[in-house]
Amino acid sequence: MLSKKVEDVLLSVQKPGRYTGGELNSVMKDKDKVDIRYAFCFPDTYEVGMSHLGIKILYSLANAREDTWCERVFAPWADMEEKMRENGIRLYALESGDEISSFDIIGFTLQYEMSYTAVLNMLDLAGLPLRSSERTDLAPLVIAGGPCVCNAEPMADFIDLMLLGEGEEVTNDLIDLLKEHKQKGSSKADFLRAAAQIPGVYVPSLYDVSYNDDGTVQRITAKDGAPPRVTKRIVSDLDNVFFPADFIVPSIEIIHDRAVAEVFRGCIRGCRFCQAGYIYRPIREKHADVVNRDCKNICDSTGYDEVSLCSLSTSDYTELEPLLNAMLDWTEKERVNIALPSQRADRFSAQLTQRLSSVRRSGLTFAPEAGTQRLRDVINKNITEEEILRACRQAFEAGWTSVKLYFMLGLPTETDEDIVAIAQMAQKVVDEFYHNPNKPKGKSVSVNISVAPFVPKPFTPFQWEAQDTKEELLRKQQLLISSFTSKKISLSRHNTDVSFLEGVLARGDRRLSAVIEAAWRKGCKLDSWSEFFNIDTWLESFAACGFDPAFYANRVRSAEETLPWDHLDYGVTKAHLAREQVRAHEGVTTPHCRVRCAGCGANKLNGGECDALYQSYARQKGQG
Amino acid sequence: MRSIRVTLAKKGRAKYLSHLDMQRCMMRAVRRARIELWYTEGFNPHPYITFALPLPLGVESESEPVEIRLEGGATNEEVFQALSAVMPEGIEVVSVQDSTAKPNEIAFAQYHIVLQNAPALTDRLRAALASGELPAEKLGKAGHKKAMKQINCCELIGSVTVEETGETVEMNAVLAAGSQQNLSPLLLLEALSAKTGEELQCLSVVRKCLLKSDYSRF
């Protein structure tokens, strides 16, 4: 319920529906009848956070326990923050309206580096000390999960423990242990030592990091019985993993306002720039009938008229055809659209895409990532220009008039020729439209080129590479703009300063905690929003703390260097990543996992099993 | 195809939902209730679910008519039961009837406003309302463009009473409503704040009902 203080300010802020709770399917419990109160925090606005699938899964999962009440918390927009600070309103959870400082667990999902200052701001709004060492009581325990914890060392000073990998099982393990220690009245230190024994739980304060004179990491040492290496958790059987039968239906419009079901985890492709493609391995598929059931349940309980089939590359799902056939049985009748995000150009079918969405026709997006075949081979994109043009041709023939193409700038080995080739490819796509004899009369084509600066990420073959400097990226953007030859082509660019900072934080070490805190103290709080991002404030903070951000972003690391995340194990071996880096520089591609297993090592997390492994053996057997 | 009028009440936290939020919310509720809808024909078929008159954000309501076009043979009672079972917190189905009146017949809306009392507030409000001049600015159209427009609230008030009830002051106001002329109760309060020089503390605003030009219920 909303407090009087909150009600008094709601009509003076934009979109008050962000702060009220009370949405359909949100979970209410009696706080006196639960043992653990869990504030699940998304360090961004309501509209962004509510669009995220992970929060929906883990919210339902924790609330399925009778002993736990999990509630949602988002970062307030600046107008609300101001009102909160003015009127002494502390950060509260949407379901109960209670201040989260009294909760047992405050859990943040770290989806992108640019949300780090929002975490600090939320802790402060909750009235809590920022640093783990300054929060001496067991409650509230501040935890974090999500892809960034594969190297959230820059957040190490603020977070009590991190959950590596998939959250479904480890969340339950952690709640069980916390409940036990809460009843025993354990100290925070005792609890953290015990929690570090749960597989997948990483307690940053139980590791000492020493540094060489050149600033690189010398050694990471576990203490108090913590494991020398923490291995991420995975769920072995996706068909039986917890998946909610309903989603909270937001009352206000959010970014992805639709039902979502997961079809598989991991990715067979091995694009060398892509962190998600490596850290979510091994491949595990859900069966089509399970996915179909999930989709139907959620549409029934929410009233959504669109369902998205989610994975890193949905066109690689082996049961896609049976799934779509089963779904179309009811979606056509009930006028539900099926969205297939992340389609590969080489697997695209215009006919299929058209059939799936009977009502709306959105734009199409493909991701060639690089302009030349040479560079696409370097990054192991395994897609040809002809495949991209064929996909566009098909789409134009089916009546689409706009396509969006994603590229990256600043990839390893990139030359000016690769950049000019992006413009050339865009022109060829425009030409495809005009070569179509049946093109719709009076309609023009629009080709949107989106270029993002390449940011090297941990646990990828490019984790040792240097990121291009801002100056070099700006030069490359200008070169690209001057290479365009048609007004039908438009360009969207990313802010190079944001990419620079993202690169620094992605591969940073725990000394950067001081910089993040300094930046927050100077006013950085929602860096993923251009309204609030200020690179100068960040640069001042680096200088004030005595760190050079270029050391983290623009430096080539040697193979021998101890990386800040070397004590974390995401399954894929460092040796495999190193082999892939060599192949990248040789311009040699690695076939996807179903053609031939490249021996990444991630299957050891799943008792040696990987869904793609079977398929690759079957294929080799068939050929032999 | 047949048209029904679903009358909704909007209370509590639901008052923070905008008109567009309400439309989306209703669309989903109807789908959850598995009510068979009539769809428009053409390139982009969509159902017909139309609120008679937008309700300003922050205002509660006891009676919001929504027109919905149905296919199939569900009775009004069946629609009432099915919808009532799936509405989110704060939004209640009051009744389901055959649709007869058209939204352009709406001429007034009746509001109940509760204000925090202040010294001599009742008299000052009455004097302000009786002065015949209550200027306010609202966003209106000037040709094709939107522009701020000066209005006199008094010209848009059908009737208004002000009563003191101890801690609070209660107003019952019938204000012009509809597509031709419309006065938001929140704008009226702004104008009254400006005129009386008293920062009015509004405790609640509830729309009681919509009226036709002869003051009969819409």
Q: Give the overall average pLDDT of chain B.
A: 93
Proportion in β-strands of chain A? 5-15%
Pair of chains with the largest interface and how many residues each contributes: A-B, 25 and 26 residues
Number of helices of chain B: 4
In the CATH hierarchy, what is the class of the largest domain in chain B?
A: Alpha Beta
Keywords:
heterodimer; A: 624 residues; alpha/beta; Rossmann fold; 4-stranded parallel sheet; 21 helices; 35% helix; globular; B: 218 residues; alpha+beta; Alpha-Beta Plaits; Pseudouridine synthase; two-stranded antiparallel ribbon; 10 strands
Summarize the structure in words:
The complex is a heterodimer of chains A (624) and B (218). Among the domains of chain A are: 4-227, Rossmann fold, CATH 3.40.50.2300; 574-623, no CATH class. In chain A, the strands form 6 sheets. Chain A has a 6-stranded mixed sheet. With 624 residues, chain A is α/β, with parallel strands linked by helices. Chain A has helices at 4-10, 46-49, 53-63, 78-86, 116-125, 167-184, 188-195, 275-279, 288-302, 320-331, 350-356, 373-378, 385-397, 416-435, 470-483, 496-506, 513-521, 535-545, 549-553, 574-586, 611-623, and strands at residues 36-42, 68-74, 105-109, 141-145, 161-163, 201-202, 207-211, 217-222, 230-231, 259-262, 264-265, 284-285, 306-310, 337-339, 364-369, 402-409, 446-453, 489-493, 568-569. In chain A, strand 17 (446-453), helix 15 (470-483) and strand 18 (489-493) form a beta-alpha-beta unit. Chain B is α+β, with helices and mostly antiparallel strands and 218 residues long. In chain B, strands 1, 2, 3, 4, 5, 8, 9 and 10 form an 8-stranded mixed sheet that branches. The model of chain B has no long low-confidence stretch (mean pLDDT 93). Chain B starts with a strand and ends in a 6-residue tail after the last strand.
